[in-house]
């Protein structure tokens, strides 16, 4: 197993005014002109301050997180993600509607590999590397994490880069579990995108199973809710 890399704790974990990636910064300017009511800035992480599970996504969706300012909020991918987290006892509500709604995450936190929306939802490799410093700095501060849940290959590879772990030692595969060291696990899932769910590459049952396994690896108490149960 590999000793996870530690970055200086003083490194920035988020900059709402970041323009390090010229293509992304230019695209955000265009989005702000077209949609002046959108967040249209780098999107911060969301969830518990001391999580046991860290969910790593790809990047904000154009009309989802880029609009609302909260990861996986306002788009199709968030429907499956938050409902699954709620059923697993990791969220207080099954739906994320706005950045200021009452939803809270329990023992879980969501980060994105790239914090700015990319054109066609496809960040360039150079943009992933540029944004990786923010992810690495946040990982350094989240000392309670025991399980990383990567949603898709780009998130998987970006996380390994931030942790200083060789990518070749941990190939991506849905449901695959990787022991990073004696106390940390990486679990992979296909991304909960509209394309993956529409083509049934990822089903709700498959995603629930991966999240349940993450809870087991994180040694969290079982507190599942019934599907469709009303939020209190």
Q: What's a concise summary of this model?
A:
The protein is α/β, with parallel strands linked by helices. It has helices spanning 22-34, 65-68, 76-87, 125-141, 153-163, 194-198, 204-217, and strands at 46-47, 53-57, 108-112, 147-151, 177-179, 185-189. A six-stranded mixed sheet has the order 1-3-2-4-6-5, with helices on both faces.
- Write out the strand line-up for the largest beta sheet, numbering strands in chain order: 1-3-2-4-6-5
What share of the residues lie within helices? 25-40%
What string, H for helix and E for strand, traces the elements in order?
HEEHHEHEHEEHH
Radius of gyration: 17 Å
Strand content: 5-15%
Count of runs of 4 or more consecutive helical residues: 7
CATH class: Alpha Beta
CATH architecture: 3-Layer(aba) Sandwich
Looking at this structure, what is the CATH superfamily? Uracil-DNA glycosylase-like domain
Q: pLDDT average, as an integer?
A: 93
Unreliable stretches, pLDDT < 50, 5 or more residues? Answer: none
Count of domain modules: 1
What is the CATH fold-level name? Uracil-DNA Glycosylase, subunit E
Structure explained in plain terms:
With 232 residues, this protein is of the alpha/beta class. Helices cover 33% and strands 11% of the residues. α4 (125-141) crosses α5. The N and C termini lie far apart (42 Å).
Describe the secondary structure blueprint for this structure.
Blueprint: H1 22-34, E1 46-47, E2 53-57, H2 65-68, H3 76-87, E3 108-112, H4 125-141, E4 147-151, H5 153-163, E5 177-179, E6 185-189, H6 194-198, H7 204-217
Parallel strand pairs: 2-3, 2-4, 4-6
Antiparallel strand pairs: 1-3, 5-6
């Amino acid at each position: 197993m590999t000793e996870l890399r530690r970055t200086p704790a003083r490194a920035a974990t988020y900059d709402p005014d970041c323009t390090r990636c010229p293509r992304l910064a230019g695209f955000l300017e265009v989005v702000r002109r077209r949609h002046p009511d959108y967040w249209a800035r780098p999107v911060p992480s969301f969830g518990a301050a001391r999580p046991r599970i860290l969910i790593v996504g790809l990047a904000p969706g154009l009309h989802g997180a880029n609009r609302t300012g909260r990861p996986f909020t306002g788009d199709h991918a968030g429907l499956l993600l938050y409902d699954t987290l709620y059923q697993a006892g990791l969220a207080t509500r099954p739906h994320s509607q706005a950045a200021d709604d009452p939803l809270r995450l329990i023992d879980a936190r969501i980060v994105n590999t790239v914090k700015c929306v990319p054109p066609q939802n496809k960040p360039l490799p150079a943009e992933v590397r540029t944004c990786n410093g923010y992810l690495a700095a946040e990982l350094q501060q989240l000392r309670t994490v025991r399980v990383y849940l990567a949603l898709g290959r780009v998130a998987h590879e970006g996380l390994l880069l931030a942790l200083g772990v060789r990518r070749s030692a941990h190939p991506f595969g849905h449901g695959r579990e990787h022991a990073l060291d004696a106390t940390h696990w990486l679990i992979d899932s296909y991304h909960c995108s509209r394309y993956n769910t529409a083509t049934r590459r990822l089903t709700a049952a498959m995603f629930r199973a991966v999240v349940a396994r993450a809870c087991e690896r994180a040694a969290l108490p079982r507190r599942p809710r019934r599907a469709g149960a009303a939020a209190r």
